[in-house]
Design brief:
alpha/beta, three-stranded parallel β-sheet, 9 helices, 8 strands, TIM Barrel
Length: about 280
């Protein structure tokens, strides 16, 4: 599996607090079948300390090589759009203030709960017109948590509209396919719907820590909204991968799990340009 959404750069944003935890995360990812990772610190990290973020990423790459981990590591950014600052963030994207995914013309975006369908369309269409090629991160979560103003319009309708009008790609969180029941399995239900309709393009973990139940005082931030990779006993990533292989035809499963960014299942194949 190629994970295009992991906050693994140590010491910045909501990622792991120290290098040892970051390396342990990548080792755990490798054990569960992840062969490459896109490191995606949040956009506000780059605004606060871009040089520090780049230095920390390079140090992590060197440590991975030093320890002989057989896992690829490239750099990107999780660009969060929050009510009240959306236009500013769009302008920052146009100015290339944040790293693109692997240096290509793809931008991983996330929205906060209760974002309206009109704000989704405004942001994603603006990015598309700016040649940003948006990928909606943790799509099953962002879309099911949206604030819908019409009774006959919900997550499925919004997903189809964004795909058609804004040419959005969707990244689903592998945890949602692993039998995780929070909240009320609506994430899993919608992730499965995206797969059934061949609208899921990428997978990721969204992980930002090694173990979400570690003592708070040993970490950089608290763990209220922390997401880990699962333990060797739990193996949540492995179970999500198995779901895809069991429920998708071989071609689609290969495209969804193995295609590296900027390729997308059903859109760009290996070796094609991202232009």
């Amino acid at each position: 599996m190629y994970d295009i959404h992991m906050n693994v750069v140590p010491g910045i944003g909501d990622g792991p607090g120290i290098m040892e935890e970051a390396v342990a995360m990548l080792a755990q990812a490798q054990r569960q079948g992840i062969r490459a990772v896109m490191a995606t610190p949040n956009n506000w990290c780059w605004e606060r300390d871009r040089d520090g973020g780049m230095e920390s990423f390079e140090q992590l790459k060197a440590e991975v090589q030093k320890r002989g981990l057989a896992i690829g590591l490239t750099l990107g950014c999780e660009t969060q759009f929050i009510l009240g600052s959306m236009t500013r963030t769009i302008q920052k994207c146009r100015m290339n203030a944040y790293p693109r995914l692997n240096g290509k013309r793809f931008t991983l975006v996330e929205f906060m709960p209760c974002t309206t369908e009109s704000d989704f369309s405004y942001v994603l269409e603006s990015l598309h017109l700016s040649c940003q090629n948006p990928i909606l991160g943790d799509a099953e979560q962002c879309l099911t948590m949206a604030d819908f103003t019409r009774t006959d319009y919900g997550p499925r309708e919004l997903a189809m509209e964004l795909r058609k009008e804004c040419r959005v790609r969707f990244q689903i969180n592998i945890r949602s396919l692993a039998g995780e029941k929070y909240p009320f399995d609506r994430y899993g239900e919608f992730a499965r719907w995206l797969i059934d309709n061949r609208m899921a393009d990428f997978v990721g973990t969204g992980a930002n820590c090694l173990a979400a139940n570690e003592p708070i005082d040993t970490l950089y931030f608290d763990r209220i909204h922390r997401r880990d990779l699962g333990s060797d006993d739990n193996r949540v990533v492995e179970r999500g991968i198995k779901y895809i292989r069991d429920h998708c035809d071989a071609e689609y499963a290969e495209a969804l799990l193995e295609r590296e960014c900027p390729g997308a299942a059903g859109h760009v194949t290996k070796g094609q340009s991202d232009a």
